[in-house]
Design goal:
The protein is of the alpha+beta class. The chain has a single domain, classed as Hotdog Thioesterase (Thiol Ester Dehydrase, Chain A). It has four helices and six strands. Strands 1-2-4-5-6-3 form a six-stranded antiparallel beta sheet. The longest helix is centred in the middle third of the chain and has 17 residues. It is globular. The relative contact order is 0.18.
Length: 166
């Protein structure tokens, strides 16, 4: 018997239009506080931004069958999405108004298998270094007992947003 999952999301253009109008930290707090719509990827994978402060962001997810690969565990792309979100948002939290970023790379190490039996997981991103044009962040994926499940590093390009975009 097939399983189904239904979900909804808000217009991503609303949130995208707000990028750069305030500091990255204020922007992320507005998303976290539902003053701006969360990005659709959060609804697609069912993960949330739980904590944000300057240089740090934490996302959480409860693994479900909908996250599985063909061999019966959570797909590595789900890990990578959580880790990329945590590292990228940690960088974004350090940006002033009028600045943007994009990921240049993401290097992920998968350390342990995750299944529905693993329970809730958290991706914790922190900024390691931020310069004028690039930033380096790392992120860890941990279970409820803080056991390390995966690790990632990410380089990000920082840039001023075009006039009118902020």
């Amino acid at each position: 018997m097939g399983r189904t999952r239904t979900y909804t999301w808000d217009d991503p253009a609303v949130t995208a239009a707000a990028v750069g109008r305030s500091s990255g930290l204020d922007f992320l707090r507005d998303v976290q506080g539902a003053r701006l719509p969360a990005p659709p990827i959060g609804a697609t994978l069912d993960f949330t931004l739980d904590e944000v402060e300057e240089g740090r962001a934490v996302f959480s997810l409860v693994p479900g069958e909908e996250h599985y690969n063909p061999i019966g565990s959570v797909h590595g792309g789900v890990y990578a999405t959580l880790l990329d979100s945590a590292a990228g948002c940690a960088v974004q939290s350090t940006l002033p108004a009028g600045m943007g970023y994009t990921s240049l790379d993401l290097n992920v190490k998968f350390l342990k298998r995750v299944t529905v039996d693993t329970g809730p997981v958290r991706a914790i991103g922190t900024v390691v270094h931020r310069g004028r044009t690039t930033a380096l962040a790392e992120a860890t994926l941990v279970d409820a007992e803080d056991r390390l499940l995966a690790h990632a590093t990410s380089s990000c390009l920082l840039f001023p947003l075009p006039p009118g975009a902020a």
